[in-house]
User: Fold these one by one.
Assistant:
Number 1:
Amino acid sequence: MSKVKVAINGYGTIGKRVADAVALQDDMEIIGISKTRPNFEAKTAAMKGYNIYAPADKIDSFKNDGYTIAGSIEDMVKAADIVVDCTPGKIGVSNKALYEKEGVKAIWQGGESKDIAPISFNSEANYADAIGADYVRVVSCNTTGLCRVIYPLDQKYGVEKVRVTIVRRGGDPGDIKSGPIDALVLDPIKLPSHHGPDVKTIMPHINITSAAIKAPTSFMHLHVLNIQLKTECSAEDVKNLFASRPRIRMIADGISATAQIIEFGRDLGRPRNDMWENCVFRDSVSVDDGELYFFQAIHQESDVIPENVDAIRAMMSLEKDNLKSIEKTNKSMGIGFKC
């Protein structure tokens, strides 16, 4: 069987990670990535051997900088079976007309409105909905992280309601324009934040309210969760459930901060110190008066990457069993090694 031809439109924080993950799959191949300017990420893509495509009016500027350009972004889309749009939030919607014109399947990221595609995607919760689909949105890093813990809890015990406060990182490590520097910013000031409603695009029956605060850090997001379950369980039951899930890592061994988790990722030899799994602080899991409480950290740069790979596999009908796709993706990327 021939490999699915995947194009990555946008080679920034998410795009470069999706490209590397797709390149590891034996049923997919990267036909090219797009860049709008010849910066260090374009240089890295060239060093990795990815075909680089650029806007037609920018091709000469790339060539003047010594790049070999495979063609325009339109040429790349024409050559693809599916495009993973990793352009900055609110930009991807402007590319939809091109994908529709060329009859190419497309995946967008969580920075786009839920209206951009008929399906919002999570590998565990609604993989089947994306089988054969033309357009899918992989939900944001925070929403992905919430779905990964809410879905198994709901399947096992039933979820009555979820209340979550999200302490968001102010910007990614390489983002020199974001803030805040010396403040905690209510983001938004009026409840709820978009995260709860976004969870409902995947699990509409979940009663969830979310609040978010932006903090002066670049490492990870931190979730403070309070969940009322329909069936009684112990903290140990929840710990065992989370430990059994393919993309949840229980964090212990003296780790009590997001910076330590990133250092742990470095020690594990993770590329870019990525933590693709939810990082649940094991000792924080507690049940009091029938309500579950815990903290989890979400690596905003990487947790959606395996979801994008699974979305490709579903949309291209390469695998109809979500657990088999998750297992295949995890094995190729090195997700699941516990220590």
Number 2:
Amino acid sequence: MWFNSFKLAGRELLPIVQGGMGVGISAHRLAGAVAAQNALGTIASVDLRHHHPDLLAATHRCRDHALIDQANLTALDREIQAARRLAQGKGAIAVNVMKAVREHPALVRQACESGADAIVMGAGLPLDLPEMTADYPKVALIPILSDARGVGIVLKKWLKKGRRADAVVIEHPGYAGGHLGAAKLAELRDERFDFERVLAECHALFQSLALGKDAPRLIVAGGVDSHEKVRRWLSSGADAVQLGTAFAVSEEGDAHLNFKQTLADADPAELVEFVSVAGLPARAVATPWLKQYLRREASLQASARADARRCTQRMDCLSQCGLRDGISRIGQFCIDLKLAAAVRGEVDKGLFFRGASKLPFGQAIRPVSELIDYLLHGRYPAAIGQPA
């Protein structure tokens, strides 16, 4: 075997990580299917009510934050348990929790209580993640960062608290989908994010901190779209690779078929980069709603005002929201509403996050097992023939 196993949470896994994608894009079906192949599957914790009709009905037109929050915790528990059943003891199940989400501490606690093997956190520096998981020392902790400086800040802070990172996702904002790890749109392709540079700087950092065999595993994410690239990065200092969009469009992906086909059909050269309501750069398919929003963005930003009633879902999902808080320099729409429409396959209404690279199988929707086999062994599915 040309690759080494990826060691995490006391398990030896294939060096393949499925990225967390919300709302509801990566839930139990996808995460469980990936884990069943002995890789790392990830459930995105944000607003999982949308996969549970009873919880949606119980919170319909609800204005009670506590009730909505509890429904999402219940949904997260159900999804973790269902993913573990699908995995049948193989692989590992991670839960992605966005730092930018208001209820992130409660989501972390629920994930740990429900038996997640790892917590993955991005969309902000997860400096206090060790405190949130102090009662669960066996749960692996994985921050998502984009450059060595950020890795250094988090690792040094955690080490002072007596906790090390088990792994670090190095996400390139020039290629990844969804919310991106750069402060400004103009910085998305800055050379400080290049994998070769970040991997070398991280290994030097680990040496300076004398971490030795306890150094975090390094997972590169963004732009990994072929067997050749998997071989390149696993032979260049990475311990694993992470893919999001390629798994989102798999047969086992939890979203509607329309969602998958919208991502698969999209031309990577025509994706849109903009600033979301969370204040972070983002990348998505240029769907009818997004095109219309961007045409009106300047006027919407000009009329921004702080008003709690602008939270159309009445759930205050984000700690900072451009629409609710009247922050004129960032997005002015309800991200939960738009992402929920996407997972239901409502192409005219939804926000469809997507990575900037081609997909391994083009427009074909194939099983997780075939994707992982291709990434690691270069075997292309006979049913769709060899790529051009």
Number 3:
Amino acid sequence: MNNLRRAGVRINRRYFFGRSSLGLGTAALASLLGDSQYAHGKSAGGGPVLSELHHAPRAKRMISLFMSGGPSQMELFDHKPVLNELNGTELPDSIRKGQRLTGMSGNQSSLPVAGSLFKFARHGKSGIEVSELLPHTAKIVDDLCVVRSLYTEAINHDPAITFMQTGAQIAGRPSLGAWLSYALGSEAEQLPAFCVMISKNASGQPLYSRLWGSGFLPSTHQGVQFRAGRDPVLYLSNPPGVSADSRRKLLDGLAELHENLYEQTLDPAVEGRISQYEMAYRMQASVPEVADLSDEPASTFDLYGEDAKQPGTFAANCLMARRLIERGVRFVQLFHQGWDQHGGLPGGIRRQCQNTDQASAALVSDLKRRGLLDDTLVVWGGEFGRTAYSQGALTATNYGRDHHPRCYSMWMAGGGVRPGTVYGQTDDFSYNIVENPVHVHDLNATLLHLLGIDHTRLTYRHQGRRFRLTDVEGELVEGILA
């Protein structure tokens, strides 16, 4: 009984007397429950697990702009003129240091250094160098902290994306958004804590729902995907012939049946199922409202660009992200595919920037003018970087770059981040980090810190072990904190 109480399980007379005759079976059940996640006082359909934050948060919410495929840091944020000086020469062994290559370029007879075709210039009072490919981002550079020294352990897309999203290369762990939903809950009663959007018509590396899944956390914490089209959330609308009153009666009947089942089994997943049904019912009214952009003034579309009028584009999704966090959503995850440029990089990255630069900058500017940037954390980046050498043929106008996990760039804004700064430094080839390395676990530890969470204390007991987003690693990166 004490174990059950510590587990946060509601005990009733029917369950106690119905199970007390089971002797060792009851003790075993209590032991299992005491060894479960609910030892932390969290019920599947309840509120946030943290009744009090570990420390004062700088951010209340987060928006992630994930550039799937691995944007090239040397074309965007990490200017390396030495590459242009040595263009076409062999990558020095002293730089590569015998590090592994992918199978796509590992068998090349030559690894020719490839200089960027794009110019860089310093912008803002901070004087941060930004590529000509990102003219809109250059205008907000004083609001950004550009991290040039991020590194990861995975060299291929699926494990690298999974690692960025869940803290593990192998699928099955909860995503960052699920951890935040579990820890902090939602400020909105009519919307989920965690929402996901993928840019339409942007081909590239496949994205799987497990990247925004809840893993072994209760399923109420998985991300809810919003889509372009008549029904922004699948299966949310009532089927033809089913009225709102009928739906309400159906849910009431289901809730009663589930309550009876819960009293017999004390299975927390039953409560979670009830909670999800009720959230779906409330979303029938809230989702159409948030997805209807007709109340946005013309100045909003001037800021985000004309693409924002087309549901499902990256620009429209950025605008939707702002509308969702305004209504209390805790975490919004945007995915934009197509950054995997093994060949034809100059043309490919130019198109990608045209599709994302204005809206990314607009989101930061929009949050700032609405007084939301100070407590909203915005993060832009991909799963790894690209190589200094060309994959395939190197010509005067064309080249490609392979995967490179040793160093890459990203930016952060708002929510307690030190603005107008550059953190970390790479060598002259953007191949190795020479100052202030930031591991993926360090990044996630810092994101949680900005949201008021000590990453070492946010744990969930599963299969006899306490898991956390940062596994058994992760250090706070104080240099990027305001």
